[in-house]
Amino acid sequence: MLSFLILALAGLAAGALNAVAGGGTFLSFPALVWTGVPPITANATATLAALPGYLSSAWAFRHELRHKGPMALRTILIAAVAGGFLGALLLLITPEKLFAGVVPWLLLLATAAFAFGPMLLKALQRSGRTMGAVSAFALLLAVTIYGGYFNGGLGIMLLAALGLIGFTDLHAMNGLKNLVSAVLSLVSVVTYAVAGLIDWQAVLVLGIASAVGGYLGAHLSKRITNMALLRGFIIAVGLVMAAVFFVRG
């Protein structure tokens, strides 16, 4: 009963955070581990729980995807499918003990991306720099492989990558970010499911709670006036969770 309550509360909070500013993985993943789900299975389960939010966000931005940019949509989707699959395969061959040791570093990386990503994105947009086609595809593939391996901080990493590639329309970038997140998560989740890595009982509780939290968060976001304070709170949560995993060894 306590595990059910922890997952339900974490799902509500994660769904609300994702709807408002992102960072829900900082709560959903540790909650799964705390309830006894092995880290690799917890990572796969948290990705599946976040998938409905990615899909609905991608649909909401469907009109913005018509904007043309320096990289064709087909090429972006190829990178998303390949990266999601390769990242999931990399997770499958990672020993449980090794992944448990890498988790706090991944949480730190995701927290740093969440903290400094917006500043980096603004700097990239001001510089006006662009990349060659091969370098741009390699960068996008690297970020999507990370997303297939560990979902935390993926959104802001994708925005930074799209800025480096040469996209400037923030609405189109948000649309692409949501679409790429949805596609690579769908591919990786299917791979996880085939390998038997999904905790279906936990994902049912977490997924329903996340959907409710996302709905409430969407309405709550209209009343939040101090986004900097909220972002600071999410960053603090990420740092605390990373510290807890470091202490746990």
Automatic annotation (TrEMBL):
Residues annotated as transmembrane: 42-61, 73-93, 99-121, 133-149, 179-198, 204-221, 228-247
Listed Pfam families: TauE
Endpoints of the signal sequence: 1-21
Origin species: Thioclava nitratireducens
This protein's UniProt keywords: Cell membrane, Membrane, Signal, Transmembrane, Transmembrane helix, Transport
Highest taxon in the source lineage: Bacteria
Cell location: Cell membrane
Protein family according to the UniProt entry: Belongs to the 4-toluene sulfonate uptake permease (TSUP) (TC 2.A.102) family.
Annotated membrane topology: Multi-pass membrane protein
InterPro entries noted in UniProt: TM_pro_TauE-like, TSUP
The protein, known as: Probable membrane transporter protein
